[in-house]
UniProtKB/TrEMBL annotation:
Full-protein positions shown: 243 to 610 of 610
Keyword Repeat set for record: yes
Name of this protein: Glutamine--fructose-6-phosphate aminotransferase [isomerizing]
Transmembrane annotation, as ranges: none
Organism: Hallerella succinigenes
Enzyme class (EC, first level): transferase
SIS domain sequence ranges: 46-185, 217-358
Biological function: Catalyzes the first step in hexosamine metabolism, converting fructose-6P into glucosamine-6P using glutamine as a nitrogen source.
């Protein structure tokens, strides 16, 4: 058991630390630096559909759904194609509209999630080409989809998904690059983006060095009953995923919110008993998020901020600041997800929970 955990106390921690390697495997041989594009062999048979599509639907459950939300922003930004993201459990039962030119992506780490599989079948029945983004090779979803991309992240044992999330986002970044280069992204922009993707693993290595510091922060919040996670734009899905990680393994109630929506409800909850995790890299929306931070502070809230190394403002307001490397905004989720995984992990361990096998949860939900 200890050997299979590679010296780590839990599979989850091992998998968090495996992310640089997992992402290198996800992108190996797939980034075309000379053309500024991506080569995804599993989509070769679907070239025509990729060229002719005019709308994309991404459907998934749990953490894979949040990766899909990042995918929506990536594909819309780079390729200019409208994308909708939907929970597979909703998609399968609401008679979704599929027209010629609608392409469906299903995302599933296990490739066995019952709702996601049913969504795939529903889309195919309606005539859509369905592409799978799976980790488990030969899984049902991988077999039944019309093409797809494997994560190559290696087996994920911890019930709370970590490296699969970052690998899914990496695949979606490459899909967006591919679609973008066929549409409106120049070779120069593509080359820059491909290099930015390739650099992510070493940047994650830097963040992993913060694990002990994040454990110290976690100690202050072990007895919290509620957490709020805020982020905007590319970091909104990360806020959702960060809150999900905390719920899954620490059993602390947590909500993710787009930061600007705070004033439409969650602000009423803020006091000294409601820690708020704010994901606020120095980007075009930083000043807006900073004003949220000020509002939280004015109401006595405790703030854990995740920001980029070039930020000087947040230390005046936040109780703790976690600094991460600055990358292209479109790839920021690959960076900001990591400290949130570590925060959830350390809080759960400090609470004495079984982080690899949290109560009531299954790694793969194969029943409805
Ligand atoms: C379960 C797992 C989650 C996972 C979700 C979707 O809820 O506990 O970690 O994100 O299923 O799983 P999938 O294998 O389809 O990505």
């Amino acid at each position: 058991d200890a050997a299979s955990k590679g010296g780590f106390e839990h599979y989850m921690l091992k998998e968090i630390f495996e992310q640089p390697e997992a992402l290198r495997n996800t992108m190996r041989g797939r980034l075309l630096f000379a053309d500024g594009s991506a080569k995804l062999a599993g989509l070769d048979a679907n070239r025509l559909e990729l060229r002719n599509l005019n709308r994309i639907i991404i459907t998934a459950c749990g953490t894979s759904y949040y990766a899909g939300m990042v995918g929506e922003y990536l594909i819309e930004d780079l390729a200019g194609v409208p994308v909708e993201v939907e929970y597979a459990s909703e998609f399968r039962y609401r008679n979704p509209i599929i027209k010629p030119g609608t392409l469906v992506f299903v995302i599933s780490q296990s490739g066995e999630t019952a709702d996601t599989l049913a969504a795939l079948r529903e889309a195919q029945t309606k005539g859509a080409t369905v592409l799978g983004i799976c980790n488990a090779v030969g899984s049902t979803i991988a077999r039944e989809s019309n093409g797809g991309v494997y994560l190559h992240a290696g087996p994920e044992i911890g019930v709370a998904s970590t490296k699969a999330f970052s690998s899914q986002v990496t695949v979606l970044a490459m899909v967006a690059l591919l679609l973008g280069r066929e549409r409106r992204v120049s070779a120069e922009q593509g080359i820059e983006f491909a290099h930015a993707i390739a650099k992510i693993p070493e940047q994650i290595e830097e963040i992993l060095k913060l694990s002990d510091k994040i454990r110290e922060i976690a100690k202050k919040y072990v007895n919290a009953h509620n957490f709020l996670y805020l982020g905007r734009h590319y970091n909104y899905p990360v806020a959702m995923e960060g809150a999900l990680k905390l719920k899954e393994i620490s059993y602390i109630h947590a909500e993710g919110y787009p930061a600007a929506e705070m004033k439409h409800g969650p602000i009423a909850l803020i006091d000294e008993n409601m820690p708020v995790v704010v994901i606020a890299p120095k980007d075009s929306l930083f000043d807006k998020v900073l004003s949220n931070v000020r509002e939280i502070k004015a109401r006595g809230g405790r703030i854990i901020a995740v920001t980029t190394e070039d930020c000087t403002e947040l230390s005046d307001y936040a109780d703790d600041v976690i600094y991460v490397p600055k990358v292209n905004s479109m790839l920021m989720p690959l960076i900001t997800c990591v400290p949130l995984q570590l925060l959830a992990y350390h809080i759960a361990v400090l609470r004495g929970n079984d982080v690899d096998q949290p109560r009531n949860l299954a790694k793969s939900v194969t029943v409805e």
